[in-house]
Design a protein that fits this description.
The protein is mostly beta strands and about 525 residues long. The chain contains four helices and 20 strands. It is globular.
């Protein structure tokens, strides 16, 4: 149910680590001396993937679900393909006198499957149709530098710390990213940044005004309000580089607390229905939703190392979890979740050899399935399912599985493609990279990572066992000095008992993935 998904995510609402994300951590440094009236940046990305046996040949779950799509004509076939593209443009418009800016992010052909819109009969097509929305305006917000701090308002990116919980989707391989309709104020004080923000998280149901020009929210009690307070000690990449060169260790940290609430709800506006349901007073339901989130982020960096960690605790309660008008539950649904991630990197004096150990934990729930991606109105799962709602009131009234943001990449097959994200799991990830060739107007880098994963609550895994799998992820990357980059990635997942099919007595078999990503990153005047 969508309500329970909201409770699970609670309310992250703050700050980015780069200037293009939302400008909160950046605290207006680019507004003091504008580089020019207009500044353009962004990238063009094309990627293609080959998926081999990602359904693991372990048969369907008890609810009839398979782990990954299979061929329509031959379900036993092993190979599937995918290729897509994206053009991203960030436009910054600065006031000539400084102190003000308008920042916009536009994505074109965003994750559109190549060849998916042939003109006419596919075999005779000579063009691709343009009758679908091919542009997405992801962000549009203003920044005003006042004598007391930075005021931001509009739809902006939402990034915090490692991106484990709130992720703006700024990486080259990101698929989504969080955006918030927000008013925020950030002020420097006592060598820290202090921020407060209010998010227009959800509103509606909307109706058109008499002139059919704008929308009006006709149920104020259904508005979802989010308030956030944060404090950070953040220096930025340039300052860290200077301190590294001087042999100094740079500590950075941040913490936020967020509160979200909703008094009433109108489920007819988001539940899947065969016919549109007319909006009337009987569709308004008391909800009594409250959620709090607390997050701590730490980073220590020196010339030869980086250690970064983030931990998040979420608590939520839904006094009335029913989504059906007239059908009420007597007891609330509760949620207590915890997630943590650690990244480390150690490097030699030349920075050519780098390696480290990453790890993460996402709390779990004893309900069947991982609870990673659950559509509204989904029926309760049974033991052996891959996914399913983590609450089934009035019998099960808790949702305790923490979910990492899907754009926080941990592996390439299990969490990214099969489960959908890190949830109800523990992972350990050793990794190493080496710049094999430099001085060729760029560098050629080889890398290798291994990901060992466990279920946090074994009975919720499909195989009802703790060990999920071990994944081997090698990479070859060429990055030029002029913005071009080519990444060739491979992955092999060796599944363990936690992914077996206990009901059918079938063992999960290895899966493989190959991906080629070509990109060009630009930054203009």
């Amino acid at each position: 149910m969508k309500l329970l998904r909201t409770a699970a995510f609670a309310c992250a609402t703050l700050t980015p680590a780069t200037a293009v994300a939302s400008g909160l951590t950046d605290h207006g440094t680019d507004l003091q001396a504008p580089p020019s009236f207009i500044e353009l940046s962004g990238y063009f990305r094309m990627r293609g993937s080959l998926f081999y046996n990602l359904d693991l040949d372990r048969g369907p779950t008890p609810s009839g679900e398979i782990f990954f799509p299979v061929s329509l004509s031959d379900p036993t076939a092993q190979l599937l393909t995918a290729a897509d593209t994206r053009i991203r443009t960030d436009v910054h418009l600065y006031a000539p006198w400084g102190g003000m800016a308008l920042k916009v992010r536009l994505d074109a052909l965003d994750n559109v499957l190549l060849g998916s819109m042939p003109e006419g009969v596919p075999s005779a097509s000579t063009s691709q149709r343009a009758d679908q929305p091919l542009f997405r305006l992801r962000r549009a917000y203003a920044e005003i530098l006042t004598p007391f701090g930075l005021l931001s308002f509009g739809r902006m990116g939402n990034q915090w710390g490692l991106g484990m919980f709130a992720n703006g989707g700024d990486c080259l391989d990101c698929d989504g990213g969080d955006s918030a309709d927000r008013i925020a104020f950030v002020a420097p004080l006592l060598d820290h940044l202090w921020a407060v923000a209010y998010d227009f998280t959800a509103s509606g149901p909307p109706v058109r005004d008499r002139g059919d020009f704008r929308w009006i929210d006709v149920e104020p009690k259904a508005i979802v309000h989010s308030f956030t307070f944060a404090v950070t000690k953040w220096r930025g990449p340039e300052a860290r580089a200077r301190r590294n060169a001087a042999g100094k260790v740079t500590p950075e940290y941040g913490a936020f607390a967020s509160y979200r609430f909703q008094d009433a709800d109108v489920p007819a506006t988001y539940l899947p229905v065969a016919q549109p349901i007319p909006l009337e007073p009987g569709q308004v339901m008391a909800r009594g939703f409250e959620a709090v989130a607390a997050d701590l982020w730490l980073r220590f960096e020196g010339k030869n190392f980086r250690a970064e960690a983030e931990g998040t605790y979420l608590h939520a309660s839904v006094e009335q979890p029913s989504l059906i008008p007239g059908v009420l539950y007597r007891e609330p649904v509760l949620s207590n979740q915890f997630g943590a991630a650690l990244e480390t990197e150690f490097r030699d004096d030349t920075y050519r050899l780098r390696g480290g150990l990453d790890a993460g934990f996402a709390s779990g729930d004893a309900a069947p399935g991982f609870g990673a991606i659950v559509p509204p109105g989904e029926l309760p799962g049974v033991a052996g399912d891959l996914d399913g709602p983590q609450a089934n009131p009035p019998f099960d009234r808790e949702v305790n599985n923490f979910r990492f943001h899907p754009d926080y990449r941990v592996d390439r097959i299990l969490f990214r493609e099969i489960i959908g994200t890190v949830t109800d799991a523990v992972y350990v990830k050793p990794h190493v990279q080496y710049d094999l060739v430099t001085g060729i107007r760029g560098k050629l880098t080889v890398g290798l990572a291994g990901v060992l994963s466990f279920a946090a609550v074994p009975e919720s895994a499909p195989g009802q066992a703790s060990l999920l799998g071990f994944e081997i992820d090698p990479t070859i990357t060429y990055a030029s000095d002029f913005g071009f980059r080519a990444d060739l990635e491979q992955a092999t997942l060796i599944p363990f008992a936690g992914l077996d099919n206990v009901e059918l007595g079938l063992f999960a078999k290895p899966a493989q993935l190959w991906r080629l990503r070509l990109s060009y990153t630009y930054r203009g005047p």
